[in-house]
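dude i think i finally got it to work??
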Amino acid sequence: MLYLDNSATTQILPEVKDAMLPYLLEEFGNPSSKYYSLATNANEAVKQARQHVASLVSCDIDEVVFTSGATESNNMIIKGVADYYRDKGNHIVTTKVEHPAVLEACKYLEQRDYKVTYLDVDQFGRININDFKQVIEEDPPILVSIIWGNNEVGSLNPIKEIAELCEEQDIFFHTDATQVIGKVKFSLSDYPGISFLSGSAHKLHGPKGTGMAILRKDSLGIPVKLTPLMHGGGQERDYRSGTLAVHNIVGFGKAAELAFENLNHNISKLEELESTLSGLLKEKFSDHIIFNNDQKDKIPGIVSVQFKGVNNEVLVKSLADHIASSTGSACSSSKPSHVLEAMGCTIEEIRSTVRFSISPTTDSQDLAIFNEL
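look at this
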């Protein structure tokens, strides 16, 4: 079977598995314990993993907080900032095409008398920077949360401009970068206006169940403050209590190390594979398909396509023995895509859309299976 659902999750690389195994079997110590080797070895392994993650996104090592994944990171940041800075305001700005972890956190806050502005997007899922500027000038928010790269259609938002505007007005800016890490080249050092960033290991060939929240320090080097989502023993500098999942964190670190080392190659490979796949689809289905994504300013390797007059669930099920694909986000698979709806698609167009998402490990020759459909 050809696996083309890498935006939902990726296969753990052999090197990642091998790095994790010792911390599941022999090196099982708690990194928060002291003095004996099982504990100090685990602590050192976590430090090394933290360094690899920091190197991948180009931030300081002490700005990396390990979580259970981007969903927790999004909730931690949005709810934590909203609570801690409530005396400074109650306005939050986001978009209509965010991951459910962001949208549901914002809806939760609306029930507690926060005001949330949901920005419209264009036909490819991007915000209009002038609309954004007008919103934050008319009613300055305490937090902006805007996705970097969309998980359904791959469109990249104008993050540089958003970050600069937030920095100018001293507004906290959070971006869910889950889909762009390891697929888009960036350095957080070039984006001082980004206050917070979220990501998950399992989107870049690491294990499920671990991710990170990047909590940037201010210009004076002072760590940002927020209300923790998880209270307890004070791990992760009191930002996220709980015994660290060392094996998963080590796996995340190894995946980040490999992604960093192979970033240019992986991006080129994804672009090449996407071009091949799009060409095969055009050749095979011609006027019977419409692409929802454009070909610029996007995450390489994500192809969202409408098969005219074909129900996407029926199509995905019929392909399941040969090709793994999806009808949209794995986190909201039971509902019609809110992303495509916000982009202006009709319900018929939404229900005929399939997402194919590629990995650098995909063999280009395997894509020839589309010729047999």
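The domain at 2-9+264-372 is CATH 3.90.1150.10 (Aspartate Aminotransferase, domain 1).
im so relieved honestly
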